[in-house]
């Protein structure tokens, strides 16, 4: 009774009270009874009798003062829960202080004659008090199966804090009054000594914790990126305070809430990820970039691009790719690989690795996609497909994941050029690097590790950006820089990359007279198919989800040549050097970042590397293959002549063509069935 959710019942005012009746005195207070019936009204409008001892309690208070207002935990239905109830005999109401559910009650079949309506002033005071209470509320959190902490609602946090302060840090209590429990009415026990919340029906336990209770001030502004206006917008004071309080909670990287000023009518679930500073509407799937400014900081309204896009943009500079950059001209001993790859794994090792299965699920890693992915149908589909690929390729290949967004159009164009010239299977994946010149200096991971100590700016060095990409070794494991579960749906494309597409096309052999028109046609084609092109002066994708995930499979024999384990900024992780390929053969929870030397002489060959692109925007993901066909159709007339193809291939490979290359049109030869490409066989 009184523990269910639902809207507040009408609070009724009592008429003139009937004569009092004497109580029948029992052997004790618990056994007290009365001849006067007391009843309460349920959600269906039916009247139900209080238990005899509860009726006796009410009658005793009524006999003392017919207009009494009192609080009690002594109702028989409340044994074990200690929920506080307020009883207003003047207005004949009973209110659950935890859920705020108010029910009409009556004595001897007489109910109030008209509805009690609080005055506008009372409503205003109540709303102001509630707002003040919310602003001052101590945050409480619970941990889900994905090891992610979530905030309790303001009302639930207030209930926990009240119980904690009243009864102490070693106490426990039972309740059905959690807001999330309104439909289910399951009994819960909260154990402060062990910081556990137990569902007494299912037996499930969840860890809880009490936050630091930070009150945000206007001195810490929060902003969100508007792709439509191409500028940062300021959160309101109340919303900024809410975000700041969540941001300050130790370990609170993920924050879920509906308590936003613009969200009162819609009640959509918003997911904030402070690791990558993004906001996701889990109902619409729209994601936005957010940022927290330091007190007193004056930020530009313009946005900077993501690290991958801006870094690769620097690497695309004409000086760098033609070899005049210091790093590229410092005496590298690379040269084209141009080898015929021969598999050398034993059948025993392949069988063992197949038995261990998907790399991301090894060592008992939970298949938990996190709050953002699990609430999104398209995201869940993509993650399941990636894990399916992992299982298929587990015998002979290792996997890495590379997240990107603003650079997506550059990657797509490189893939299409490689399809026309080099048989690259662009219908399945983008190509992160195409221009070979930087690889003359750093052709592989071994050479990169030799150069790395010289780079004060670490993996932000132009020499790295020209050849390397950042990645993670697991789809499911947590990561300090770019966890796939956070960055996939949260990708954003805000950096101005004007001119880079034209520069890339020129480097790929497109005649200068045709570069400008071709770039415009490509941007228009991309926008039509749903790819975010705002970084190139085009349109943002409608969903706001401009993130992409490149799933990269490298043959186990080649892993140590092109991939090394790292910490943030590319610092080598010596613990996983066993070498790295050996570490990836174990049945352990694979985790951690990687740096990949994306040598195009290797990455365009399906015998060495297989890749799959997954896009967060459902429309573009479904239309990507059509987009690639449109791209290759735009390029073929321009790169159609044999002389033009030879010039383009020489430009891409720095003047020296690989021995395996022929000037024939490779467009048709690049086609491969999905079933064959998705097979681990060579």
Automatic annotation (TrEMBL):
Residues 1-12 have a biased composition (Polar residues). It comes from the Eukaryota. It comes from Rhizochromulina marina. Residues 1-45, 285-305 are annotated as: Disordered. This is WWE domain-containing protein. Residues 288-297 have a biased composition (Basic residues). InterPro entries: WWE-dom_subgr, WWE_dom, WWE_dom_sf. One of its GO terms (molecular function) is zinc ion binding. Residues 24-107, 126-210 form the WWE domain.
